[in-house]
Write a structure and sequence with these properties.
Layout lengths: L2 H32 L3 H24 L6 H28 L5 H7 L1 H16 L5 H10 L1
Length: 140
């Protein structure tokens, strides 16, 4: 991975940490201060986390300058697909490989992260001029 590509991936991981912290804070706050049930608190926390993730990734990680609404809809679809990859990995690890549940959950993180990163980079936040920019950067 070239330096700028690696830096972009590091930014993406940093956004993931931030979105996780914000999401958990919302979940815990909703439960503690407002006595919200687990399902509603979880949905609220994940919704806020997805908004944080979309905002930071579109502006900071990928510097997206295209239309926001189509990108957001694609981002939500990518998040669902990435979650599916996570869940598939976890279920296979538990039910077919026979791994411990906690280890299986940890093994679900890389497929989620990689699916989300590459789909975000090449499908959600891709711009029409990006292939030319990539060519110029690769030739330097």
């Amino acid at each position: 991975m070239k330096g700028w590509k690696f830096l972009q991936f590091i930014k993406f991981l940093s956004v993931g940490v931030a979105n996780t912290l914000v999401g958990l804070s919302v979940i815990y706050s909703a439960k503690w201060f407002f006595n919200v049930g687990d399902v509603a608190a979880n949905a609220l926390g994940y919704s806020v986390g997805l908004l944080v993730s979309f905002t930071l990734n579109s502006r900071w990680t990928f510097a997206h300058q295209g239309p926001r609404l189509p990108a957001m809809l694609k981002f939500l679809l990518v998040s669902l697909v990435a979650y599916g990859m996570n869940l598939l990995t976890v279920m296979i690890a538990i039910h077919y490989v026979g791994l411990n549940d906690y280890i299986a959950q940890a093994l679900g993180i890389p497929p989620y992260t990689l699916t989300s990163f590459f789909a975000s980079k090449y499908l959600v936040f891709r711009t029409k001029s990006e292939p030319n920019e990539r060519l110029q950067l690769d030739n330097q």
